[in-house]
Write a structure and sequence with these properties.
The complex is a heterodimer. By secondary structure, chain A is mainly alpha-helical. Chain A is built from 13 helices and no strands. In chain A, helix 2 crosses helix 11, helix 3 runs antiparallel to helix 4 and helix 11 crosses helix 12. The chains are: A mainly alpha, B mainly alpha.
Chain lengths: 314, 370
């Protein structure tokens, strides 16, 4: 039976799907790496993703422009990042609770805005024409590799590009050093003349923008509609992934591909109709996330100032 | 820009100073103020849906509190919310970040459904305690896993408890769409539980049932534990500072796991409450990817615990407020067409305003003059 399922076509479509499934995880996790490297745990990521999915869909629904949808999603993500920053950086509120607040706000508001601007939930939801994979001439014709790598969505390439860009920022630029300094020892960073508050605000804005774009992927690329809770916990997976990746972009890429693979396996097996309860397959990514988190948690080197608000007076 | 000029046109500078814990009345004042400001923000949201907020709020509150039917319906919703709110409050008190009450509810309902469907012959006075204990145990077990993973391996409990919700959701989906599916039913659900397992109603003709009494008793028990027992003290000590608690000889890991068991167990009873008091069948996955049986009450528990300041009586008030919001939102929808999950948005708005309120309780903001 396995032999019937595992054919060359299956493997190619599985690997291509792996890359696609990794996209929202890459956006979210790289964003989360920015936030956590600066010392802020952004638990609002799932809410930011849902808001991204909602506003990207609504914008595209009215304007027909997919990229405008992505842009508006990023903007809304930045606003939510600012809110998170105001709560955790300016007020120094507990980061767990602040993140849950942003999560709840994003979850509720994403339905509410959709309902106001688009219409009733339930029944057959309205759709937009989603992003389509682009075909890169010549490279797209390469057997096996072509369909996997060179017949993909533009957002896939952007997500992959994010990895070296983030790695470059973290390791090779002053800004990256400042972010790390702020996340390790804000007091020392402050003494050295780094504006701790500005860096943390900036990082949370980046985190917000990236996770909202990751959310937009669900409503205007992977599917063509918005559904409540359509991100299905992927934001929380990102929080586990950033630990798995030890806050380093290239390791995050490995993690995202691994999780994308599990996700893709699950959907591909469903698609070819393997006689296995698909609800059990749907559980796999979540179970796998927990197992991986348990395996790496002790070895992870958390940013030293994570969860600790910084105040000059104290 | 010369510094003198910058000082002149610059934004006013503020200094944040910590202040000693203010009296209870001041705390309550800020909590109430946060809710009032949230309701004003809610009014703007209603306005953006093209409806007069005054009319909408009138329908919301009269729909939840006006008349015997409305009031009993609100109390009927209050029951599971009080349970999940208490469950989360127990866990949050020692900073075990349990946001998995949704999954623990489903776990409790599942085991209770197994007993409720299997033991048809038993009398009520045996069966009801049996399913309740079963629900407690299943919820407790499901919550104990993340607690053990945190105590033994340092795995982040927020992530593990939340992902547990999805695992349990799909598990219940697999059961009611597969082996447990009632062949005579049109949609995926288990066969009905024995009628002896159903929670008796309190007033004939209305939906409130003995679950309300169970929930209030559990809440009072929580109050008693926090006030009078050593364990309640340990719970608070671990929440305030786990390192210091450890040095003082408290077994932090054990307190954490016990809290998780209690928390998950209470959430499990919330699941039993929904199964035996409302639905009578184990149900699958609802549109919107929450359990049709748990219906987001587990997530609401996080909000209720926070709004209640993790205090048993505060949690009770917060759960009642949430019940008004949920029940009233539907009346508001029927009368004005404002999207009924209005309460889901308000959960987020209130929580953010509350954080600002809590900040104002603990800190004083002073304007600095040069």
């Amino acid at each position: 039976m396995i032999g019937e399922v595992i054919t060359a076509t299956f493997i190619i479509s599985f690997l291509a799907a792996t890359l696609r499934m990794a996209v929202p995880l890459l956006f979210g996790t790289i964003g989360e790496a920015f936030a956590e490297r600066s010392g802020i745990l952004n638990l609002g990521i799932e809410g930011m993703m849902l808001m991204g999915a909602s506003v990207a869909f609504t914008t595209t629904f009215y304007t027909g422009s997919l990229w405008l949808g992505v842009g508006v999603a990023a903007l809304v993500g930045i606003l939510l990042g600012l809110l998170m920053a105001f709560l955790t950086v300016t007020m120094g509120a507990q980061q767990h609770v602040s993140g849950l607040g942003v999560f709840f706000l994003g979850m509720g508001l994403s339905f509410y805005l959709y309902r106001i601007f688009v219409g009733e939930l339930g029944g057959v939801p309205p759709t937009v024409t989603p992003f389509r994979p682009i075909y890169i001439p010549l490279l797209g014709d390469i057997p096996v590799l072509g369909p996997i790598l060179f017949q993909q969505y533009v957002l896939v390439y952007i997500a992959l590009l994010l990895v070296p860009i983030a790695a470059f920022i973290f390791d090779r630029t002053t800004l990256g050093l400042q972010i790390t300094a702020v996340g390790q020892n804000p007091k020392a960073a402050d003494t050295a003349g780094i504006n701790v508050f500005r860096i943390r605000y900036l990082c949370l804005m980046v985190a917000g923008a990236l996770s909202a774009i990751g959310g937009a992927w669900f409503s205007i690329a992977q599917s063509s509609m918005f559904l409540p809770l359509m991100t299905a916990g992927r934001g929380w997976v990102c929080i586990a992934l950033v630990v798995f990746g030890n806050w380093m972009p290239y390791r995050i890429l490995i993690g995202a591909l691994l999780f994308g693979g599990i996700d893709a396996l699950q959907t591909s097996l469903q698609a070819v109709g393997v006689a296995f309860p698909y609800r059990i397959l749907q559980m796999l990514p979540y179970i796998f996330t927990i197992i991986v988190l348990v395996a790496v948690a002790r070895r992870a080197t958390y940013p030293a100032a994570l969860l600790k608000p910084y105040r000059r007076e104290e | 820009m010369p510094p003198q000029l910058k000082a002149k046109i610059g934004l006013p500078k503020f200094r944040i100073e910590k202040r000693p814990p203010p009296p209870l009345l001041t705390r309550v004042k800020w909590y109430v103020l946060s809710v009032v400001i949230s309701l004003i923000i809610g009014a703007i949201l209603i306005l953006s849906a093209g409806v007069n907020p005054a009319i909408a709020y009138y329908h919301l509150f009269s729909g939840a509190l006006g008349g015997k039917l409305a009031l009993t319906e609100t109390l009927w919703r209050f029951t599971p919310l009080l349970l999940t709110g208490t469950a989360v409050a127990v866990a949050f008190t020692c900073k075990f970040w349990n946001i998995g009450a949704e999954g623990q509810m489903l776990a409790g309902a599942t085991l209770a459904a197994y007993f409720g469907v299997t033991f048809v012959g038993l009398p009520s006075w045996v069966l009801i305690p049996l399913v309740t204990v079963a629900g407690f145990l299943a919820g407790a077990a499901w919550a104990a896993i993340p607690a053990i993973l945190r105590a033994k391996f340092g795995a982040d409990d927020v992530v593990t408890t939340l992902l547990g919700n999805w695992i349990m959701l799909y598990f219940v989906g697999a059961l009611v769409e597969g082996p447990w599916r009632d062949p005579y039913s049109l949609w995926p659900e288990s066969p009905a539980i024995a009628s002896a397992a159903r929670f008796p109603t309190l007033i004939p003709g209305y939906r409130i049932h003995i679950g309300l009494i169970i929930a209030v008793l559990i809440s009072l028990l929580f109050l008693l534990i926090m006030r009078r027992s050593i364990w309640g003290y340990q719970l608070k000590a671990v929440g305030a500072n786990p390192r210091a608690a450890g040095f003082a000889g408290i077994n932090v890991g054990r307190v954490l796991i016990t809290a998780a068991i209690l928390s998950g167990g209470i959430a499990g009873i919330a699941g039993v409450n929904e199964l035996c008091g409302t639905h009578f069948h184990l149900k699958g996955i609802a549109m919107g990817a929450v359990g049709e049986l748990s219906w987001g009450y587990g997530y609401a528990g996080v909000f209720i615990a926070m709004l209640g300041g993790l205090h048993p009586l505060g949690v009770m008030l917060a759960a009642f407020f949430m019940a008004i919001m949920i029940n009233g939102s539907q009346a508001m929808y029927r009368a004005t067409g404002v999207y009924s999950p209005f309460w889901r948005v308000m959960q987020g708005v209130i929580m953010i305003c509350l954080l600002i309120g809590i900040f104002m309780i603990n800190y004083r903001v002073r304007r600095v003059r040069e």
